[in-house]
Protein backbone atom coordinates (compact mmCIF):
# COMPACT_ATOMS: atom_id res chain seq x y z
CA UNK A 1 0.00 0.00 0.00
CA UNK A 2 1.31 3.44 -0.98
CA UNK A 3 0.71 6.47 1.20
CA UNK A 4 0.82 9.88 -0.49
CA UNK A 5 0.72 12.87 1.86
CA UNK A 6 -0.15 16.38 0.70
CA UNK A 7 1.28 19.21 2.81
CA UNK A 8 2.10 22.90 2.50
CA UNK A 9 3.94 25.42 4.59
CA UNK A 10 1.07 27.86 4.67
CA UNK A 11 -2.69 27.52 4.84
CA UNK A 12 -4.82 28.30 1.81
CA UNK A 13 -2.24 27.25 -0.76
CA UNK A 14 -4.42 24.51 -2.24
CA UNK A 15 -3.63 21.31 -0.32
CA UNK A 16 -7.18 20.04 -0.14
CA UNK A 17 -8.04 20.85 -3.76
CA UNK A 18 -4.89 19.02 -4.88
CA UNK A 19 -5.37 16.06 -2.52
CA UNK A 20 -9.03 15.50 -3.46
CA UNK A 21 -8.09 15.72 -7.15
CA UNK A 22 -5.37 13.08 -6.66
CA UNK A 23 -7.80 10.73 -4.94
CA UNK A 24 -10.34 11.26 -7.74
CA UNK A 25 -7.72 10.53 -10.44
CA UNK A 26 -6.45 7.37 -8.73
CA UNK A 27 -10.05 6.14 -8.44
CA UNK A 28 -10.73 6.99 -12.08
CA UNK A 29 -7.76 4.92 -13.21
CA UNK A 30 -9.07 1.92 -11.30
CA UNK A 31 -6.84 2.00 -8.23
CA UNK A 32 -8.43 1.13 -4.89
CA UNK A 33 -7.97 4.46 -3.16
CA UNK A 34 -8.90 5.86 0.24
CA UNK A 35 -8.80 9.57 1.12
CA UNK A 36 -7.66 10.44 4.64
CA UNK A 37 -8.02 13.87 6.25
CA UNK A 38 -5.54 14.38 9.09
CA UNK A 39 -6.01 18.12 9.27
CA UNK A 40 -7.88 17.30 12.48
CA UNK A 41 -8.39 20.90 13.49
CA UNK A 42 -10.40 21.96 10.44
CA UNK A 43 -10.90 18.95 8.14
CA UNK A 44 -12.40 20.00 4.82
CA UNK A 45 -11.80 17.12 2.39
CA UNK A 46 -15.41 16.02 2.90
CA UNK A 47 -16.67 19.16 1.16
CA UNK A 48 -15.09 18.21 -2.14
CA UNK A 49 -15.63 14.49 -1.60
CA UNK A 50 -19.17 14.43 -0.21
CA UNK A 51 -19.96 11.36 1.84
CA UNK A 52 -23.23 9.70 0.85
CA UNK A 53 -23.03 6.77 3.25
CA UNK A 54 -21.42 6.62 6.67
CA UNK A 55 -19.79 3.24 7.19
CA UNK A 56 -18.59 3.70 10.76
CA UNK A 57 -18.27 6.38 13.38
CA UNK A 58 -15.67 6.30 16.15
CA UNK A 59 -15.55 8.49 19.23
CA UNK A 60 -12.11 8.98 20.72
CA UNK A 61 -11.71 9.52 24.45
CA UNK A 62 -8.03 9.94 25.18
CA UNK A 63 -7.97 13.46 26.63
CA UNK A 64 -8.29 14.36 30.28
CA UNK A 65 -9.28 17.48 32.18
CA UNK A 66 -8.66 18.41 35.81
CA UNK A 67 -11.49 19.12 38.21
CA UNK A 68 -11.22 20.51 41.75
CA UNK A 69 -13.35 19.62 44.77
CA UNK A 70 -13.22 22.82 46.79
CA UNK A 71 -14.55 21.12 49.94
CA UNK A 72 -11.32 19.10 50.14
CA UNK A 73 -8.99 22.00 49.22
CA UNK A 74 -6.55 23.07 51.93
CA UNK A 75 -5.70 26.34 50.22
CA UNK A 76 -2.01 25.65 49.52
CA UNK A 77 -2.41 26.89 45.89
CA UNK A 78 0.26 24.48 44.70
CA UNK A 79 -1.97 23.64 41.73
CA UNK A 80 -1.93 27.23 40.46
CA UNK A 81 1.83 27.35 40.81
CA UNK A 82 2.34 24.09 38.96
CA UNK A 83 -0.12 24.53 36.06
CA UNK A 84 2.00 25.13 32.94
CA UNK A 85 -0.94 26.68 31.05
CA UNK A 86 -2.35 29.04 33.69
CA UNK A 87 -5.66 27.17 33.61
CA UNK A 88 -6.51 27.28 37.33
CA UNK A 89 -8.29 30.41 38.45
CA UNK A 90 -9.02 31.58 41.95
CA UNK A 91 -11.89 34.05 41.97
CA UNK A 92 -12.30 34.69 45.69
CA UNK A 93 -8.93 33.58 46.98
CA UNK A 94 -7.97 30.12 48.17
CA UNK A 95 -10.45 27.26 48.41
CA UNK A 96 -12.55 28.74 45.63
CA UNK A 97 -10.62 27.36 42.75
CA UNK A 98 -11.89 26.59 39.30
CA UNK A 99 -10.25 24.87 36.36
CA UNK A 100 -10.84 26.75 33.14
CA UNK A 101 -11.47 23.81 30.82
CA UNK A 102 -10.59 25.89 27.77
CA UNK A 103 -6.99 26.18 28.91
CA UNK A 104 -6.53 22.85 30.73
CA UNK A 105 -4.43 20.51 28.57
CA UNK A 106 -4.92 17.54 30.87
CA UNK A 107 -1.30 16.94 31.92
CA UNK A 108 -2.48 16.13 35.46
CA UNK A 109 0.42 17.78 37.27
CA UNK A 110 -2.04 19.48 39.66
CA UNK A 111 -3.78 16.21 40.53
CA UNK A 112 -0.47 14.46 41.14
CA UNK A 113 0.79 17.16 43.49
CA UNK A 114 -2.30 18.17 45.46
CA UNK A 115 -1.58 17.18 49.10
CA UNK A 116 -5.30 17.14 49.92
CA UNK A 117 -6.30 14.98 46.92
CA UNK A 118 -8.80 17.64 45.93
CA UNK A 119 -7.95 17.48 42.24
CA UNK A 120 -9.01 14.59 40.07
CA UNK A 121 -8.76 13.92 36.36
CA UNK A 122 -11.83 13.16 34.30
CA UNK A 123 -11.95 11.55 30.88
CA UNK A 124 -12.61 13.99 28.04
CA UNK A 125 -13.53 13.51 24.42
CA UNK A 126 -10.66 14.19 22.01
CA UNK A 127 -12.67 14.03 18.82
CA UNK A 128 -14.59 11.98 16.31
CA UNK A 129 -13.47 9.84 13.41
CA UNK A 130 -15.78 8.99 10.56
CA UNK A 131 -15.34 6.43 7.79
CA UNK A 132 -17.69 7.12 4.91
CA UNK A 133 -18.28 6.28 1.29
CA UNK A 134 -18.00 9.24 -1.08
CA UNK A 135 -20.24 10.01 -4.05
CA UNK A 136 -17.38 8.80 -6.24
CA UNK A 137 -17.49 5.35 -4.66
CA UNK A 138 -14.19 5.33 -2.76
CA UNK A 139 -13.91 5.69 1.04
CA UNK A 140 -12.98 8.84 2.99
CA UNK A 141 -11.65 8.75 6.54
CA UNK A 142 -11.99 12.01 8.45
CA UNK A 143 -10.87 12.90 11.97
CA UNK A 144 -12.22 15.95 13.75
CA UNK A 145 -10.71 17.33 16.96
CA UNK A 146 -13.00 18.82 19.62
CA UNK A 147 -12.94 22.63 19.57
CA UNK A 148 -10.09 23.97 21.67
CA UNK A 149 -8.63 20.47 21.89
CA UNK A 150 -4.94 19.76 21.92
CA UNK A 151 -3.68 19.05 18.44
CA UNK A 152 -0.40 17.18 18.44
CA UNK A 153 2.00 15.13 16.43
CA UNK A 154 1.25 11.92 18.37
CA UNK A 155 -2.47 12.40 17.65
CA UNK A 156 -1.85 12.77 13.90
CA UNK A 157 0.46 9.73 13.97
CA UNK A 158 -2.24 7.71 15.75
CA UNK A 159 -4.92 8.69 13.22
CA UNK A 160 -2.65 7.79 10.31
CA UNK A 161 -2.03 4.41 11.91
CA UNK A 162 -5.74 3.72 12.42
CA UNK A 163 -6.51 4.85 8.85
CA UNK A 164 -3.78 2.57 7.47
CA UNK A 165 -5.16 -0.41 9.41
CA UNK A 166 -8.68 0.19 8.10
CA UNK A 167 -7.33 0.65 4.58
CA UNK A 168 -5.37 -2.60 4.77
CA UNK A 169 -8.51 -4.47 5.84
CA UNK A 170 -10.39 -2.97 2.91
CA UNK A 171 -7.65 -3.96 0.46
CA UNK A 172 -6.77 -0.38 -0.50
CA UNK A 173 -3.74 0.23 -2.81
CA UNK A 174 -3.31 3.97 -2.37
CA UNK A 175 -3.91 6.29 0.58
CA UNK A 176 -4.14 10.00 -0.23
CA UNK A 177 -3.62 11.96 2.98
CA UNK A 178 -4.51 15.65 3.33
CA UNK A 179 -2.12 17.04 5.92
CA UNK A 180 -2.34 20.01 8.28
CA UNK A 181 -1.00 23.48 7.40
CA UNK A 182 2.20 24.72 9.03
CA UNK A 183 5.64 23.21 9.28
CA UNK A 184 5.95 21.87 12.80
CA UNK A 185 5.18 18.75 14.78
CA UNK A 186 1.84 17.82 13.17
CA UNK A 187 3.31 18.19 9.69
CA UNK A 188 6.37 16.14 10.59
CA UNK A 189 4.03 13.48 11.97
CA UNK A 190 2.13 13.45 8.67
CA UNK A 191 5.26 13.06 6.53
CA UNK A 192 7.31 10.49 8.50
CA UNK A 193 7.01 7.03 7.01
CA UNK A 194 4.92 8.07 4.00
CA UNK A 195 5.74 6.83 0.48
CA UNK A 196 5.52 10.31 -1.01
CA UNK A 197 5.09 13.90 0.14
CA UNK A 198 3.50 16.35 -2.29
CA UNK A 199 4.30 19.88 -1.16
CA UNK A 200 1.89 22.50 -2.47
CA UNK A 201 2.91 26.16 -2.44
CA UNK A 202 1.49 29.34 -3.88
CA UNK A 203 3.91 31.78 -5.50
CA UNK A 204 4.33 34.14 -2.55
CA UNK A 205 7.44 34.50 -0.39
CA UNK A 206 5.39 33.65 2.73
CA UNK A 207 4.23 30.38 1.24
CA UNK A 208 7.58 29.36 -0.29
CA UNK A 209 9.28 29.93 3.05
CA UNK A 210 7.06 27.33 4.75
CA UNK A 211 7.07 24.96 1.79
CA UNK A 212 10.88 24.85 1.65
CA UNK A 213 10.93 23.89 5.30
CA UNK A 214 8.45 21.11 4.60
CA UNK A 215 10.74 19.95 1.78
CA UNK A 216 13.67 19.88 4.22
CA UNK A 217 11.66 17.79 6.70
CA UNK A 218 10.89 15.32 3.91
CA UNK A 219 14.59 15.18 2.99
CA UNK A 220 15.61 14.61 6.60
CA UNK A 221 13.18 11.76 7.00
CA UNK A 222 14.11 10.34 3.59
CA UNK A 223 10.62 10.65 2.18
CA UNK A 224 10.45 11.15 -1.56
CA UNK A 225 9.02 14.62 -2.15
CA UNK A 226 7.65 16.57 -5.08
CA UNK A 227 6.95 20.27 -5.24
CA UNK A 228 3.80 21.75 -6.77
CA UNK A 229 3.46 25.47 -7.48
CA UNK A 230 -0.20 26.40 -7.34
CA UNK A 231 -1.85 29.58 -8.68
CA UNK A 232 1.18 30.02 -10.91
CA UNK A 233 1.15 33.27 -12.86
CA UNK A 234 4.69 33.40 -14.14
CA UNK A 235 5.97 35.97 -11.66
CA UNK A 236 9.70 36.48 -11.06
CA UNK A 237 9.37 34.99 -7.56
CA UNK A 238 8.52 31.62 -9.18
CA UNK A 239 11.74 31.59 -11.16
CA UNK A 240 13.72 32.30 -8.02
CA UNK A 241 11.90 29.48 -6.25
CA UNK A 242 12.62 27.08 -9.10
CA UNK A 243 16.33 27.90 -8.88
CA UNK A 244 16.30 27.30 -5.13
CA UNK A 245 14.46 24.02 -5.67
CA UNK A 246 17.02 22.67 -8.09
CA UNK A 247 19.78 23.76 -5.72
CA UNK A 248 18.04 21.73 -3.00
CA UNK A 249 17.73 18.74 -5.32
CA UNK A 250 13.96 18.92 -4.93
CA UNK A 251 11.70 17.93 -7.81
CA UNK A 252 9.21 20.35 -9.27
CA UNK A 253 6.41 18.02 -10.38
CA UNK A 254 3.80 20.50 -11.49
CA UNK A 255 2.89 24.11 -12.04
CA UNK A 256 -0.85 24.67 -11.72
CA UNK A 257 -1.87 27.91 -13.41
CA UNK A 258 -4.15 30.42 -11.77
CA UNK A 259 -7.49 29.37 -13.21
CA UNK A 260 -10.96 30.65 -12.37
CA UNK A 261 -12.33 27.14 -13.07
CA UNK A 262 -10.84 26.10 -9.71
CA UNK A 263 -12.86 28.71 -7.84
CA UNK A 264 -16.00 27.66 -9.74
CA UNK A 265 -15.33 24.01 -8.81
CA UNK A 266 -15.27 25.06 -5.15
CA UNK A 267 -18.66 26.71 -5.48
CA UNK A 268 -20.17 23.43 -6.70
CA UNK A 269 -18.08 21.43 -4.19
CA UNK A 270 -16.28 19.05 -6.58
CA UNK A 271 -12.58 18.34 -7.18
CA UNK A 272 -11.58 20.52 -10.13
CA UNK A 273 -10.50 17.48 -12.20
CA UNK A 274 -14.05 16.14 -11.90
CA UNK A 275 -15.82 19.45 -12.50
CA UNK A 276 -13.79 20.73 -15.38
CA UNK A 277 -11.43 18.01 -16.68
CA UNK A 278 -10.33 20.05 -19.72
CA UNK A 279 -9.39 23.19 -17.79
CA UNK A 280 -5.77 24.35 -17.68
CA UNK A 281 -5.60 23.66 -13.95
CA UNK A 282 -6.89 20.09 -14.36
CA UNK A 283 -4.32 19.37 -17.08
CA UNK A 284 -1.54 20.57 -14.81
CA UNK A 285 -2.86 18.51 -11.89
CA UNK A 286 -2.87 15.42 -14.12
CA UNK A 287 0.80 15.99 -14.96
CA UNK A 288 1.66 16.23 -11.25
CA UNK A 289 -0.43 13.09 -10.67
CA UNK A 290 1.53 11.17 -13.33
CA UNK A 291 4.77 12.30 -11.68
CA UNK A 292 3.63 11.09 -8.28
CA UNK A 293 2.52 7.76 -9.74
CA UNK A 294 5.95 7.30 -11.30
CA UNK A 295 7.60 8.37 -8.05
CA UNK A 296 5.91 5.71 -5.97
CA UNK A 297 6.15 3.08 -8.70
CA UNK A 298 2.48 2.56 -9.51
CA UNK A 299 1.44 1.60 -13.00
CA UNK B 1 -6.77 50.98 28.92
CA UNK B 2 -5.40 49.06 25.98
CA UNK B 3 -7.99 47.60 23.64
CA UNK B 4 -6.99 44.18 22.38
CA UNK B 5 -8.17 42.98 18.95
CA UNK B 6 -7.45 39.43 17.82
CA UNK B 7 -7.53 38.55 14.13
CA UNK B 8 -8.50 34.92 13.72
CA UNK B 9 -10.57 32.78 11.39
CA UNK B 10 -10.10 29.05 11.41
CA UNK B 11 -8.94 28.39 7.90
CA UNK B 12 -5.41 29.08 6.70
CA UNK B 13 -4.89 31.48 3.82
CA UNK B 14 -8.05 33.52 4.31
CA UNK B 15 -6.05 36.69 4.85
CA UNK B 16 -5.57 36.89 8.63
CA UNK B 17 -2.04 38.26 8.42
CA UNK B 18 -2.90 40.68 5.62
CA UNK B 19 -5.82 42.09 7.64
CA UNK B 20 -3.91 42.17 10.95
CA UNK B 21 -0.91 44.00 9.52
CA UNK B 22 -2.98 46.50 7.55
CA UNK B 23 -5.27 47.15 10.53
CA UNK B 24 -2.31 47.78 12.84
CA UNK B 25 -0.78 50.19 10.30
CA UNK B 26 -4.02 52.13 9.90
CA UNK B 27 -4.45 52.49 13.67
CA UNK B 28 -0.83 53.52 14.03
CA UNK B 29 -1.21 56.12 11.24
CA UNK B 30 -4.24 57.55 13.03
CA UNK B 31 -1.76 58.35 15.82
CA UNK B 32 -2.86 55.62 18.18
CA UNK B 33 -0.05 53.88 20.00
CA UNK B 34 -0.31 50.39 18.52
CA UNK B 35 1.31 47.01 19.06
CA UNK B 36 1.10 44.18 16.53
CA UNK B 37 1.58 40.67 17.95
CA UNK B 38 2.24 37.75 15.61
CA UNK B 39 1.26 34.71 17.67
CA UNK B 40 1.34 32.26 14.76
CA UNK B 41 4.51 30.81 16.28
CA UNK B 42 4.80 27.94 13.81
CA UNK B 43 4.92 30.19 10.81
CA UNK B 44 5.18 33.87 11.77
CA UNK B 45 5.29 36.12 8.74
CA UNK B 46 3.71 39.47 9.67
CA UNK B 47 7.15 41.04 9.76
CA UNK B 48 7.65 40.10 6.09
CA UNK B 49 4.78 42.46 5.19
CA UNK B 50 6.42 45.23 7.20
CA UNK B 51 9.79 44.50 5.62
CA UNK B 52 11.59 44.46 8.97
CA UNK B 53 13.75 41.82 10.58
CA UNK B 54 12.76 41.76 14.25
CA UNK B 55 15.67 40.93 16.53
CA UNK B 56 15.49 38.31 19.22
CA UNK B 57 14.91 40.05 22.54
CA UNK B 58 14.31 37.06 24.74
CA UNK B 59 14.10 33.27 24.58
CA UNK B 60 10.80 31.60 25.50
CA UNK B 61 12.02 29.29 28.24
CA UNK B 62 10.35 26.53 30.20
CA UNK B 63 11.44 24.54 33.18
CA UNK B 64 13.11 21.25 32.22
CA UNK B 65 14.51 19.00 34.93
CA UNK B 66 18.13 18.13 35.53
CA UNK B 67 19.17 15.63 38.19
CA UNK B 68 21.89 15.89 40.82
CA UNK B 69 23.48 12.42 40.62
CA UNK B 70 25.03 12.61 44.08
CA UNK B 71 21.85 13.59 45.90
CA UNK B 72 19.50 11.32 43.96
CA UNK B 73 18.63 8.08 45.80
CA UNK B 74 16.86 6.58 42.74
CA UNK B 75 13.60 6.42 44.67
CA UNK B 76 11.73 6.78 41.37
CA UNK B 77 9.12 9.26 42.64
CA UNK B 78 9.79 11.67 39.75
CA UNK B 79 9.52 8.85 37.21
CA UNK B 80 6.10 7.93 38.57
CA UNK B 81 4.80 11.47 38.81
CA UNK B 82 5.88 12.77 35.38
CA UNK B 83 2.58 13.31 33.50
CA UNK B 84 4.34 13.01 30.15
CA UNK B 85 6.35 9.93 31.12
CA UNK B 86 9.63 11.32 29.83
CA UNK B 87 11.86 10.70 32.88
CA UNK B 88 13.66 7.34 32.82
CA UNK B 89 16.67 5.63 34.36
CA UNK B 90 19.43 5.35 31.78
CA UNK B 91 21.97 2.54 31.34
CA UNK B 92 24.16 3.93 34.11
CA UNK B 93 21.17 4.05 36.48
CA UNK B 94 21.08 7.83 36.30
CA UNK B 95 17.86 9.72 35.78
CA UNK B 96 17.46 11.48 32.48
CA UNK B 97 14.82 13.14 30.32
CA UNK B 98 14.48 11.06 27.17
CA UNK B 99 12.31 13.26 25.03
CA UNK B 100 12.76 16.94 25.83
CA UNK B 101 10.16 18.13 23.34
CA UNK B 102 7.40 16.36 25.28
CA UNK B 103 8.32 17.91 28.67
CA UNK B 104 5.79 20.64 29.47
CA UNK B 105 7.71 22.14 32.38
CA UNK B 106 5.07 21.44 35.05
CA UNK B 107 7.75 21.04 37.76
CA UNK B 108 5.93 18.05 39.31
CA UNK B 109 9.30 16.26 39.59
CA UNK B 110 10.87 19.27 41.30
CA UNK B 111 8.15 19.37 43.96
CA UNK B 112 7.98 15.65 44.56
CA UNK B 113 11.70 14.97 45.00
CA UNK B 114 12.42 14.31 48.70
CA UNK B 115 16.16 14.85 48.21
CA UNK B 116 16.13 18.23 46.43
CA UNK B 117 17.98 16.52 43.63
CA UNK B 118 15.96 18.03 40.79
CA UNK B 119 17.03 21.38 39.41
CA UNK B 120 16.05 23.53 36.47
CA UNK B 121 18.24 23.23 33.38
CA UNK B 122 15.76 25.23 31.33
CA UNK B 123 15.04 24.87 27.67
CA UNK B 124 14.24 27.37 24.94
CA UNK B 125 10.98 26.69 23.13
CA UNK B 126 11.63 29.57 20.81
CA UNK B 127 12.12 33.30 20.83
CA UNK B 128 10.28 36.54 21.32
CA UNK B 129 11.36 38.92 18.57
CA UNK B 130 10.57 42.60 18.34
CA UNK B 131 10.99 45.55 16.01
CA UNK B 132 9.62 49.04 15.46
CA UNK B 133 8.61 50.37 12.04
CA UNK B 134 7.29 53.91 11.62
CA UNK B 135 6.06 54.05 15.20
CA UNK B 136 4.37 50.65 15.05
CA UNK B 137 5.83 48.09 17.42
CA UNK B 138 5.72 44.43 16.44
CA UNK B 139 6.26 41.46 18.74
CA UNK B 140 6.73 38.08 17.07
CA UNK B 141 6.62 34.67 18.72
CA UNK B 142 8.78 32.08 17.03
CA UNK B 143 8.80 28.38 17.84
CA UNK B 144 12.04 26.46 17.27
CA UNK B 145 11.63 23.96 14.44
CA UNK B 146 12.44 21.04 16.73
CA UNK B 147 9.89 22.04 19.38
CA UNK B 148 6.29 20.88 19.37
CA UNK B 149 4.69 22.70 22.29
CA UNK B 150 3.03 25.51 20.31
CA UNK B 151 0.26 26.03 22.87
CA UNK B 152 2.77 26.40 25.70
CA UNK B 153 4.92 28.80 23.65
CA UNK B 154 1.89 30.96 22.84
CA UNK B 155 0.86 31.03 26.49
CA UNK B 156 4.36 32.20 27.45
CA UNK B 157 4.39 34.73 24.60
CA UNK B 158 1.04 36.15 25.73
CA UNK B 159 2.32 36.43 29.33
CA UNK B 160 5.19 38.53 27.95
CA UNK B 161 2.78 40.60 25.84
CA UNK B 162 0.62 41.20 28.92
CA UNK B 163 3.52 42.69 30.85
CA UNK B 164 4.58 44.74 27.82
CA UNK B 165 1.03 46.09 27.45
CA UNK B 166 0.90 47.04 31.12
CA UNK B 167 4.21 48.88 30.82
CA UNK B 168 3.73 50.62 27.48
CA UNK B 169 0.01 51.39 27.78
CA UNK B 170 -0.81 51.00 24.09
CA UNK B 171 -4.10 52.29 22.74
CA UNK B 172 -4.51 49.20 20.58
CA UNK B 173 -3.01 45.74 20.46
CA UNK B 174 -3.66 43.68 17.32
CA UNK B 175 -3.00 39.94 17.78
CA UNK B 176 -2.63 37.79 14.66
CA UNK B 177 -3.55 34.24 15.72
CA UNK B 178 -2.55 30.88 14.20
CA UNK B 179 -5.09 29.19 11.91
CA UNK B 180 -7.46 26.60 13.32
CA UNK B 181 -9.62 26.27 16.43
CA UNK B 182 -7.34 24.21 18.66
CA UNK B 183 -5.86 25.03 22.04
CA UNK B 184 -3.07 27.19 20.61
CA UNK B 185 -5.67 29.55 19.11
CA UNK B 186 -7.63 29.62 22.36
CA UNK B 187 -4.46 30.75 24.17
CA UNK B 188 -3.79 33.44 21.55
CA UNK B 189 -7.33 34.79 22.07
CA UNK B 190 -6.96 34.81 25.82
CA UNK B 191 -6.59 38.56 26.41
CA UNK B 192 -8.67 39.77 23.47
CA UNK B 193 -11.61 42.14 23.89
CA UNK B 194 -12.87 41.55 20.38
CA UNK B 195 -12.06 39.08 17.61
CA UNK B 196 -12.10 39.91 13.91
CA UNK B 197 -13.03 36.66 12.15
CA UNK B 198 -11.61 36.54 8.63
CA UNK B 199 -13.38 34.10 6.35
CA UNK B 200 -13.82 33.46 2.64
CA UNK B 201 -16.91 32.41 0.67
CA UNK B 202 -15.96 28.80 -0.13
CA UNK B 203 -17.27 25.51 1.33
CA UNK B 204 -14.07 25.38 3.43
CA UNK B 205 -14.48 28.93 4.66
CA UNK B 206 -18.08 28.24 5.58
CA UNK B 207 -17.30 25.11 7.58
CA UNK B 208 -14.38 26.64 9.48
CA UNK B 209 -16.56 29.69 10.22
CA UNK B 210 -19.02 27.36 11.98
CA UNK B 211 -16.22 25.89 14.09
CA UNK B 212 -14.80 29.34 14.84
CA UNK B 213 -18.20 30.66 15.99
CA UNK B 214 -18.52 27.67 18.31
CA UNK B 215 -15.06 28.36 19.73
CA UNK B 216 -15.77 32.08 20.23
CA UNK B 217 -19.02 31.20 22.03
CA UNK B 218 -17.09 28.96 24.42
CA UNK B 219 -14.55 31.71 25.10
CA UNK B 220 -17.37 34.24 25.24
CA UNK B 221 -15.93 37.23 23.41
CA UNK B 222 -17.44 39.70 20.98
CA UNK B 223 -16.59 39.17 17.29
CA UNK B 224 -16.78 40.96 13.97
CA UNK B 225 -16.94 38.93 10.74
CA UNK B 226 -14.87 40.01 7.76
CA UNK B 227 -15.56 38.22 4.49
CA UNK B 228 -12.42 38.36 2.41
CA UNK B 229 -12.41 37.67 -1.34
CA UNK B 230 -16.18 38.21 -1.02
CA UNK B 231 -16.92 38.17 -4.75
CA UNK B 232 -15.63 34.69 -5.56
CA UNK B 233 -18.96 32.99 -4.85
CA UNK B 234 -22.19 34.92 -4.30
CA UNK B 235 -23.90 31.76 -3.04
CA UNK B 236 -21.34 31.10 -0.31
CA UNK B 237 -21.14 34.76 0.58
CA UNK B 238 -24.88 34.66 1.26
CA UNK B 239 -24.50 31.46 3.31
CA UNK B 240 -21.71 33.05 5.36
CA UNK B 241 -23.72 36.16 6.12
CA UNK B 242 -26.71 33.99 7.05
CA UNK B 243 -24.49 32.03 9.43
CA UNK B 244 -23.38 35.29 11.08
CA UNK B 245 -26.96 36.57 11.35
CA UNK B 246 -28.05 33.32 12.96
CA UNK B 247 -25.24 33.70 15.47
CA UNK B 248 -26.59 37.15 16.33
CA UNK B 249 -24.12 39.28 14.38
CA UNK B 250 -25.84 41.54 11.86
CA UNK B 251 -23.00 43.60 10.50
CA UNK B 252 -20.00 42.37 8.59
CA UNK B 253 -17.13 43.81 6.60
CA UNK B 254 -16.09 42.56 3.22
CA UNK B 255 -13.21 42.88 0.81
CA UNK B 256 -13.67 41.63 -2.77
CA UNK B 257 -10.97 39.51 -4.40
CA UNK B 258 -8.45 41.46 -6.40
CA UNK B 259 -5.39 40.15 -8.16
CA UNK B 260 -3.74 43.45 -7.31
CA UNK B 261 -3.88 42.64 -3.58
CA UNK B 262 -2.38 39.21 -4.27
CA UNK B 263 0.46 40.87 -6.20
CA UNK B 264 1.00 43.33 -3.35
CA UNK B 265 1.49 40.43 -0.93
CA UNK B 266 4.00 38.96 -3.29
CA UNK B 267 6.12 42.08 -3.33
CA UNK B 268 5.70 43.04 0.36
CA UNK B 269 3.54 46.06 -0.49
CA UNK B 270 0.78 47.06 1.88
CA UNK B 271 -2.80 47.60 0.82
CA UNK B 272 -3.36 50.57 3.11
CA UNK B 273 -0.28 52.29 1.73
CA UNK B 274 -1.50 51.92 -1.86
CA UNK B 275 -4.21 53.95 -3.56
CA UNK B 276 -6.39 50.87 -4.12
CA UNK B 277 -9.99 51.65 -3.10
CA UNK B 278 -10.19 48.33 -1.26
CA UNK B 279 -8.23 49.89 1.56
CA UNK B 280 -11.41 51.70 2.62
CA UNK B 281 -12.74 48.45 4.07
CA UNK B 282 -9.76 48.28 6.43
CA UNK B 283 -10.14 51.95 7.37
CA UNK B 284 -13.83 51.36 8.14
CA UNK B 285 -12.93 48.33 10.23
CA UNK B 286 -10.41 50.44 12.15
CA UNK B 287 -13.07 53.12 12.77
CA UNK B 288 -15.48 50.47 14.00
CA UNK B 289 -12.86 49.16 16.41
CA UNK B 290 -12.10 52.66 17.67
CA UNK B 291 -15.83 53.07 18.43
CA UNK B 292 -15.85 49.78 20.31
CA UNK B 293 -12.93 50.95 22.40
CA UNK B 294 -14.70 54.22 23.20
CA UNK B 295 -17.83 52.34 24.25
CA UNK B 296 -15.76 50.07 26.44
CA UNK B 297 -13.96 53.02 28.04
CA UNK B 298 -17.22 54.87 28.70
CA UNK B 299 -18.54 51.78 30.47
CA UNK B 300 -15.40 51.83 32.61
Characteristic key phrases:
heterodimer, A: 299 residues, alpha/beta, two-stranded antiparallel ribbon, 13 strands, 27% strand, elongated, B: 300 residues, 9-stranded mixed beta sheet
Tell me what you see in this structure.
The complex is a heterodimer of chains A (299) and B (300). Chain A is of the alpha/beta class and 299 residues long. Helix content of chain A is 36%, strand content 27%. Chain A is built from 11 helices and 13 strands. In chain A, a hairpin with a 4-residue loop joins strand 8 (127-134) and strand 9. In chain A, helix 5 (153-169) packs parallel to helix 6. Chain A is elongated, with a radius of gyration of 22 Å. In chain B, helix 1 packs across helix 10 and helix 7 packs parallel to helix 8 (234-246). Chain B has 10 helices and 13 strands. With 300 residues, chain B is of the alpha/beta class. At the A-B interface, helix 3, helix 4, helix 7 and helix 9 of A face helix 4, helix 5, helix 6, helix 7 and helix 9 of B.
Helix and strand topology:
The complex is a heterodimer of chains A (299) and B (300).
Chain A: E1 2-7, H1 15-28, E2 33-37, H2 45-48, E3 51-60, E4 63-68, H3 78-82, E5 88-90, E6 97-99, H4 109-113, E7 119-124, E8 127-134, E9 139-145, H5 153-169, E10 174-178, H6 185-191, E11 196-201, H7 205-220, E12 225-232, H8 236-247, E13 251-257, H9 260-267, H10 272-275, H11 280-296
Parallel strand pairs in A: 1-10, 1-11, 2-9, 2-10, 11-12, 12-13
Antiparallel strand pairs in A: 3-8, 4-7, 5-6, 8-9
Chain B: E1 3-8, H1 16-29, E2 34-38, H2 46-50, E3 55-62, E4 65-67, H3 77-81, E5 87-89, E6 95-97, H4 108-112, E7 118-120, E8 123-133, E9 136-143, H5 150-168, E10 172-176, H6 183-188, E11 194-199, H7 203-219, E12 222-228, H8 234-246, E13 253-255, H9 259-266, H10 279-299
Parallel strand pairs in B: 1-10, 1-11, 2-9, 2-10, 11-12, 12-13
Antiparallel strand pairs in B: 3-8, 4-7, 5-6, 8-9
Helix pairs in contact in B: 1-10, 7-8
